[in-house]
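Posting here for the record, re: 2-acetamido-2-deoxy-beta-D-glucopyranose.
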Amino acid sequence: MSEGSSLLPLMLFLPFLLVGMREGVHCFEEVNVVNLKKFQWRDVNHVSSCQPQKSRKEKGVTMLEMKHRDYCSGLVKDWNKKLQKHLISDDLRVQSLQSQIKRADSGRTEGFSEAQLPLTSGIKLQTLNYIVTVELGGKNMTVIVDTGSDLTWVQCDPCKSCYGQQDPLFKPSISPSYQSVLCNTSTCQTLQLATGNSGVCGTDQRTCNYFVRYGDGSYTRGELGRERLDLGGTVMEGFVFGCGRNNKGLFGGASGLMGLGRTKLSLVSQTFSKFGGVFSYCLPSSEADASGSLTLGGDSSVYKNSTPISYTRMISHPQLLSFYFLNLTGISIGGVALEAPGFAQGRILIDSGTVITRLKPSVYGALRSEFLKQFSGFPPAPGFSILNTCFNLSEYEEVNIPTIKMHFEGDVQVNVDVSGIFYFVKSDASQVCLAVASLAYEDQVGIIGNFQQKNLRIVYDSKQTRLGFAEEICNFT
Ligand SMILES: *[C@@H]1O[C@H](CO)[C@@H](O)[C@H](O)[C@H]1NC(C)=O
Ligand SMILES: *[C@@H]1O[C@H](CO)[C@@H](O)[C@H](O)[C@H]1NC(C)=O
Ligand SMILES: *[C@@H]1O[C@H](CO)[C@@H](O)[C@H](O)[C@H]1NC(C)=O
Ligand SMILES: *[C@@H]1O[C@H](CO)[C@@H](O)[C@H](O)[C@H]1NC(C)=O
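Prediction output follows.
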């Protein structure tokens, strides 16, 4: 990012400056330099196996290395197809989120239960992108991280129907620390809130059977158990999890899922006495070799943030208890504040499972036109899936693009990392799109996707109901 010696960016930059001055707008104070060659997929194609992710403990905080899921997904033959698929699934997830919010808002509770919550967890939708490794009953398990659902589960042996995974299946029968959760216990009853389906007694009238349906046919079914969970050296005895005997869906090669939602059964709640209800993550860029971290515990001195953490209010929805909402008060592009009626309405969802940020049409429209004004003179390229602001930059080595800042209640400003502004549809940069999309309707709720959360330390502090942001180059070591 410091190849300031290249003349090209300066030459590209001059015309903006002139236009900016002519219009009397100070548009161009804030720019990012993007090296277009850096984003090629070439290296990613070589990844074909996944090793367990690392972990460590520091000042009572557990840190788990976090990788993009593509790290485990093997050889990719057709990136274009894969990307297209990613975005289509992303849209399905967003539609499902919107219909849930709408339902909850309209107070139509008949037929509504928390059951629908996991529908949004996007497993089937292939949008849950980040994995960590934990030790369950002494065995390494690589699981997908989901902030939108609560029950943590792994596939168990003997298995009635399991998808292929990289690690060996978990075998409760040979683990001395494994215990069944009985169906007459209050723990079994917490399933209702966590998954929407109440726990039911097995045929033996003892075990507590759970069923989580993630919509469109994807599910996990099995019984609740308690097991020793080692999170990077912090051990929790009797952690309640799902032992999945019948699981279906696109979980990649992962052993299961870690639920970081907000109800009683979630990992955050179960580990409250150890970590105080605080976790944070730093999402690496999608390059397969990049690693980030998931930390559990509130001592912020272990983070490697380069700017102070600033906190905004975490807003809860009375019906959608697992979701983390924020009050987005504005967006600025290259230092220019956008004007749009859709700000400060007290609700934008921050989601680790949605990829591309969705904005209300009025906000997206303002963002697009300001971006085009500042990033002008580049050949346009056709839109791609949900993305409609695209350029052909194949002739350029490097370009300057305006910064994007999100503003939240409490005077919090979040600078979107440069890797989160452009989506490279074609690796030769002949189709590069602004990685933000419009919602269909003004009354839908915006979503901050994980593409715009990269290289940020994002702290979820449920105890103080606040969410913090700081800049950090994600790196586990
Ligand atoms: C789990 O993986 C880590 C990292 O590769 C390794 O050091 C550790 O020995 C493994 N633990 C088990 C029980 O296999
Ligand atoms: C649950 O059932 C078991 C026997 O299956 C019994 O020993 C235990 O006391 C029961 N617990 C409660 C809370 O009813
Ligand atoms: C969002 O924050 C703004 C600025 O602090 C405030 O004026 C507005 O009332 C907030 N909106 C809601 C719904 O809380
Ligand atoms: C992009 O621009 C280059 C150079 O001008 C051109 O050769 C190429 O055909 C364009 N590609 C697309 C997909 O438009």
